[in-house]
Amino acid sequence: MTGPAGWSLLLLMSAPAPASPPSAGPPGKQREAARKATFFLTEFEKWFLPRVAARLPGWVLPDHLTGLGVVAATAIGACYWLSVRDPAWLWGANLGLVFHWLGDSLDGTLARVRRIQRPRYGFYLDHLTDAYSTVAIGVGLGLSPYMLLSVSLAVVICYLVLSINVYLETHVMGEFRYGYGWLGPTEARLALVALNTLALTAGPLPFRLLGVGATVFDVLGLFVALSMLLMLLRRAARNLRALSRLEPANVVKD
Fold first, then answer.
1. Does the domain formed by 3-244 have CATH 3.30.1360.40?
2. Which residues contact 235 (CB under 8 A, 6 or more apart)?
3. Residue 123 — very low, low, confident or very high, per pLDDT cuts 50/70/90?
């Protein structure tokens, strides 16, 4: 999403570096699907996160970090809602984004560093909590003075549909691409922090369109929702072309 709103689902677009996902196959014989990420900060995170994970106390487990991400997402949503009373709560949202990044990025990294991966458990839990985090932040934005609830929910819905597409790709292609384009969850969090700071200094920048009160951030949110829809259509068309080559229509199977 952008603005306190727009970038917030970009922030979750794809949400985080999840536990290695299982590919299709019978239970107990699943291999890990290939994980693919080509974001601007990918190389930095590959260098930084394992070093942080290696220094965490032994009692800290991946589930603790996943829980930290869930608590942080809840706090971010609450801070957006409370910004109705005082815009200074956006600083709390920024702090929550830092903790959300730590929890969301380190849980899978810690499991890999310690070689205690649980691919199916991690894949299921990570994306279940990602969906919750998306809704919590999206609803919080919609209850803030910066974005209409209808706009924030449109972005939430588009994000969840994009997520479903990623899970389908993982199952049918054995490749887990947890983002779209060059903007990953870390880049989106940084953008959201910058936009929260802009909102603190400039305010919601309200206007009326066809008698409906809106803000500049609503325009940005609608732009992001439309962009996600177009990305979905493009990627779905590419996937269907690839699958149709592998499984041609009207061909009798032996």
1. no
2. 165, 180
3. confident
